[in-house]
Amino acid sequence: MPMAMKNQKVHRLVDQMSQNATRDDVKHESYVREAIESGLSDSREGRTRDVHVVREKYGLPA
Predict the structure, then answer these.
(1) How does pLDDT run across 7-48, given as a tens digit for each residue?
(2) Cα 14–16–18 angle (5° rounding)?
(3) For the chain, what is the radius of gyration of the CA atoms?
């Protein structure tokens, strides 16, 4: 993503946050949004795993 677009996204994010938000709050919110967008993209592209397979792999109950 070009830097100008990233800057615009950050500005929009900051505008939506409380005036008391810290730099760490902005970094956390940015990280969470990026992780969600990445997961949605993976889902749209079919890059998913069945939950039962993942649970079995990590020894979790079904």
Answers:
(1) 888 889 889 999 999 999 999 998 999 999 999 999 999 999
(2) 80
(3) 17
pTM of the model: 0.69
**Beta-carbon contacts of residue 33 (< 8 Å; ≥ 6 apart):** 13
Both tokens assigned to 56 = 């079995």
- Dihedral of CA atoms 37, 41, 43, 45 in degrees, nearest 10, equals 180
User: Where along the chain do its domains lie?
Assistant: 22-62
Structure tokens at 37: 């967008």
Q: Are 61 and 55 in contact (CB under 8 A)?
A: yes
At 3, list the tokens. 């830097």
Residue 24 corresponds to which tokens in the numbers above? Answer: 């760490």
For residue 47, the model assigns a pLDDT of 97
Nearest by Cα to 14 from 1, 29, 3 = 29
